[in-house]
Write a sequence for this structure.
């Protein structure tokens, strides 16, 4: 499972979870900051 970390969480958390959830990213990394309409049904958020 991959995680997409919400902008309200620090992007530094990725380092702590990347071993357990390879391929996980923070919204800042994929240019999704302040994006409207992101829901948990479309992505998993830690």
């Amino acid at each position: 499972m991959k995680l997409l970390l919400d902008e309200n969480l620090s992007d530094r958390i990725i380092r702590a979870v990347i071993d357990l959830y390879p391929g996980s990213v923070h919204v800042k990394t994929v240019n999704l900051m302040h994006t409207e309409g992101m829901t948990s049904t479309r992505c998993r958020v830690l």
Strands lie at 4-5, 25-26. Residues 15 and 24 are 10 Å apart (CA to CA). The mean pLDDT is 76. The helical segments are 14-17.
